[in-house]
Amino acid sequence: MLGLAFTAWLTVVICYGGNWVLGQCMIERPIVVGLVAGILMGDVQTGVIIGASLEAIFMGAVNIGGAISAEPVTATALAVAFAVGAGVDTSAAITIAVPVGVVTAFLSIFMNNVVLAFFAGPFDKMAADGNERGLALQHYLLWFIKYALFALIAFFGVYFGAEPVASIVNQIPANVTAGLNAVGSLLPAVGMALLLQMLWSPQLAVYFFLGFTLYSYLQLPMIAIAVFGVVIAVVSALRDKELFDLSKRGVPALGSEDASANKAADDDEEAFFA
Q1: pTM > 0.85: yes or no
Q2: Which of 177, 233, 244, 256 sits CB 3.0–4.6 Å from 252 for a disulfide?
């Protein structure tokens, strides 16, 4: 169990810490974390399945600056560790991972805004003195300390929690386990629904219904639907570029003159009845 806990710790350090060492390169996303955890823990298939499922759940959770909505790295590492090392079903592991991601987000905020705030004074002093080497040294030293300490959540979670979680899951009645599996299967749909709530517009709705129809009724594979999406995106982009080039040359777009005439007529009508 010690080796499994260490791989969970290493996964968090690589993906969460590596994401910020040279800029946000997005390796903290669950689909990448699941792959890394699967490679380190010896079960790539399980890691990718859990990572892809959690990616659908946390797809709309992007941490920008000090705003942290969720912390999916630790959640994904623990879910893969529980599934690979403790024999927990993937759906149950995904269900466990979601609240973990919310709780660890608060711990990350506490570390960023409270613990690291004590080092602001030395940073300001070094910057005022022009000590570039000291700034770089303290930056990378604090980077390692921060993520090494934060990754201990995953380490102790696996080391002390894998066996109890496995024993608890094994004692759960079959009907409750079926319910957990159903919830775990629905969570990606909930994540996609939350994302669509932010992106939904009448102009985009037709494409969502098109994708649903292609998959549900025509039984097309995901790759074929993705190709359809790429073709539509390219055609739309070329059309928008054409309209943009026409507007730069001063050529009115098709229908713009009619729209202007209708607007003028509406203005005259409002002025008449005013």
Answers
A1: no
A2: 256
